[in-house]
Structure formats: C-alpha cells, structure tokens
Amino acid sequence: MNQIFWIKLDNLKYSNFFNEITRLENQKIIFTPNPEILLVVKKDPEFKKMLGKANYLLPDWIWLYIAFQILEENNKFFRFLKLPYYFFNLFFMRKYLYERYWERICWSDLTRDLVNYSEKNNIKITILDLYNPTDSKKVKSQEIFSSKLKEKFPNLEFDYFIYEPSKKTEIIEQIKNSDSKILFSTLWNKRQEESIIEIIANCPNIKLWLWVWSSFDYYIWFQKRAPKLFRVLWLEWFYRLLTWPKKILRLRRLYNAIFVFIWEVLK
To answer: Which H or E element spans position 144?
Structure first.
C-alpha cells in the first residue's frame, strides 16, 4: 500500500482485483482518487474521511507514479535533481513501475469490464448521472443515454437515474427495491462519494459501488475516447486536451494535476 498526503492507495494486480470484486458477496466501495482529488483532500478533512470509508482506493493517473518515486527519496534536494530520472521511468520503465508500485487500473477500462461482466452474467446495474440542467449538451446526451447504452449492450439490465437533489429520497427508494447489485456514479468530486456513502447505508442489495467519472460517455458516443496509440503511450490526457471544447478549463485542470500536484509532493 502506497501513501500520498496521508491517503493510503492500494497496490493491486488488475486480474486479482477484478476477480475479487465480482464475487459480489459483501458490500464494497471503490474510489479512484487522482492528483486533483488528492489536492482537494489535502485541504478538506471531511473529504478525506469520506475516502477512508472505501474498501479500495485505486490510483488512476500516471503522475502518481512520479509522486511515489519522489516520496521514496528522503532528501528533498535529491528529489529535485532526480526528477528527469522519474519522468524517464514513467515513459520507458513502465514494467519496473508496475512491479514496484501497482498495476495501473484505469476507471474507463474497469467500467467496460464490469459492464461486460454484468451483461454476460445477468447482473443488473444502476447508473447515477450528474444533474446539470445548465449544460445543454449534457442534457441532450442524457435524453438518449438509455437507448444508446442498450445498443451497445443489448442484454444488459440497468436502471439509469439523473441524480437530482430534490428527487434523492425517491431515487434511493427505487434502488433499494430493485434487483441491482452494482452501482456506478458519474457525479463529480465529493458529490460522488457523498451519494455512494448515503446510498450504501440504505440499499443492502447493492454489493459493489464505484465512481467512474465520464466512462459511460464513451459508450453513448457523447465523448470519443483517445485512440489506442495515445492510451498505450499514456497520453490520453493530451488527446483530451486537444479535443476538449473548453480547453482553458482543461489546461487549468492539467496544470493542477501535474505541476501543482508534483510541487506539493516535492515539498
């Protein structure tokens, strides 16, 4: 288990992890904190407490490999000097990093595999989507979400809810009375954790809970995932930068996730 900002992140092999969570015997919560979330947690004790309720905290961004290498060096002066070496390892010594720290578990791939597994094994799932009526493009995607997902996974049983705060009690009651066993939350920072923790206390039928950001957007063609070459080279973030319609917002997020995060770890 590795640790950043007093948050302990699990060191797992994907195949073992996937086999364990798909047993669906006991309730399990999975959160996947990235550098942005870890920066927020550093200043937010309440958020840190929420993450502490998870059974698994899966590191999901390549810059975390830089952080783990930095934290192994106790001398702060040498941390700065060895930065080029850390970046070299990131892109050319991936197998070494996998063995030393953890095998990267990407939330998009995990979502895909769980949905495929659910369809194959007749396991019903629930999806909570972000309520954001001011985003017209998102609203349009939500109108076609169920039909598009059904096209992609014709035998999948699922419930789809737009998590509107005023309808929260009604939604929780519907989930509780369903046959669903896996819940995916696509809400944003902190709201994802809050919704999952609240629902788990009321819905014993749900055995696996995880937040997956925008993973489902790839299946309904709301977003296009980076080509395989970008994913193999760990440059999916760069592809999103090139194609993201609000590039200034994306630049700010990348700046925080890379430069601000690495600086805080260096300190």
So the answer is: helix 136-152
